[in-house]
Write a structure and sequence with these properties.
Helix content: 10-25%
Distance between the termini: 58 Å
Number of domains: 1
Largest sheet: 6 strands, mixed
Order of helices and strands: EEEHEEHEEHEEE
Number of helices: 3
Number of strands: 10
Radius of gyration: 17 Å
Structural class: mainly beta
Length: 136
């Protein structure tokens, strides 16, 4: 039996995530929601405060595009984060390199690097493209 306590976190009546036990979980589409320069994940200051009031100590972001899971503590997020406001109200963001990253198969991803294959974390040059082997 699952006894996890879940609390919906809303900003301006928009559901932005859930506090489950002591973790604030939000699901995103990285192609739309990640900051591009610098590459970072942002949280609304309002949502972060609300999550903390509901017992959150950790952050978990699930990217529905790549199936990557980004995790950190709220303490580290605040310490290493930076303020940003790009039209969605005051936010705090932290660059991707600061997050712990794994794929949904619980496999650790060593580093966030856009030139790497998401599934097995190999450089693109090492991937085996069998269908193109005989093309010259």
């Amino acid at each position: 039996m699952n006894t996890s306590r879940a609390v919906k976190i809303k900003v301006n009546k928009l559901h932005v995530g859930d506090v489950i036990d002591s973790t604030f979980v939000k699901k995103i589409f990285g192609s739309r929601h990640l900051l591009r320069n610098p590459r970072a994940i942002a949280y609304s200051e309002t949502a972060l405060k609300e999550a903390e009031l509901n017992g959150a100590e950790f952050l978990k972001v699930i990217d529905k595009d790549t199936h990557l899971i980004y995790s950190t503590t709220i303490e580290k997020f605040k310490k290493n984060g930076f303020d940003v406001n790009r039209g969605y109200g005051p936010q705090i963001a932290m660059v991707l390199e600061e997050w712990e990253v794994e794929n949904q198969h619980k496999k650790k991803v060593s580093k966030v690097n856009k030139k790497r294959d998401v599934e097995d974390n190999k450089p693109l040059e090492q991937l085996n493209f069998r269908m193109f082997r005989n093309i010259r």
